[in-house]
Amino acid sequence: MEHRYLLGGFYSLIYFLEGILITYFTGFNIIYLRTFDLSFTTIGLISSIALIPLVIKVFIGLFSDSINPFGLGYRKPLIIVGLLLEGSIICLVPFLSPVKTPVLFTAVLFLVPLGMATFDTATDGYALDRTPKDKRGFVQGIMVGGRAVGMVLAAASIGYVTEYYGWQPVFFGIGAITLVPIAYYFFVPPEVPRKEEVSFSFSAFKSFATLPVFFFMLIGFLYPLVIYNVEGIANPFLKEGLGISMLNVGFVTALFGIGTGVGAAFGGAFIDKVGHRTSLVIALVISTATILPIAAAHNLNTAYALLFFFGMAFGYYETVYFALSMDFSNPRIAATMFAVFMAIGNLGIAVGQPLAGMLVDNVGFRWTFIILALVNLAVLPMIPAIFRKVKTAT
Length: 394
Description:
Strand content: under 5%
Distance between the termini: 25 Å
Oligomer: single chain
Number of strands: 0
CATH superfamily: MFS general substrate transporter like domains
Shape: globular
Number of helices: 15
């Protein structure tokens, strides 16, 4: 793969930043909003609205596939626009209140993920354009691994910073970190010129009209609904259910991130060897097996071990799904199709957040973990259907 290390560095930085943002929104945003004495149901609603950009990112992908603004490229201009939007807007969050200015607060939370969705979708398209099929597991391992490192840093530092200095430095720090990929952006190789056989075509949307793709998207909806919302309620469970301090919550979340990195590194090399179907079955089994014991956690030491192993399952599942998404993406609409697969997953997260919040309010944390683990098993009968051989639309 040409420019392997330069591109690897860029992908890891982009996903490193994304890991920080995802850790905040899925792991700490709930705790931050609880400082305003909001109910879990209200928090779930606000969080769902804030994550809408991650669901509608398909339109960003469509723009990236079909429009070359001012002849500057299909992917790179959107990458820099997204980075600038996210990095600037997140610095406004600590100056607003979801109680005093709920609409403005929610709007700002909406714009931060919009920036992230923009640079993420364009980077995915850029990677799809440049990555050979036999290197997709490798590239996804770098991406998920970079995100895991961001999650570790965010988990450890956010817990520490909020314990001793409050929340404002957290938002300013994320804005400052965004400057790093912005600077690196100017050293990234230019986009690969498009050949006629992979140029944008509306006829390529026929690729969606197959049963394997349908079931793949259904799996893509269910698996993040489960694993992201297990992660999302794990921190408040540790803090409110087990009485663990914010500092230790950060350490546990950091271990989760380390586990995610291990799972991604292992998955990136493993899935190309054992096959994607076997990899998906393994991902389903180990994710379910690591969620159920969390419901029985009663102390900090147990939480350390359980969240680490769940992190490994999380990272492995993510790598498998992303590599499969690259396989299913038609080159003519690569960014659009990949964005659809990611948007389906983000829809699962968005739908799952209010559901998880209502479950916690009504049946408690422990039963919520059990219910989510059972939902995860619904994926199993769909796996044979997605590996039926179909002809790719052109």
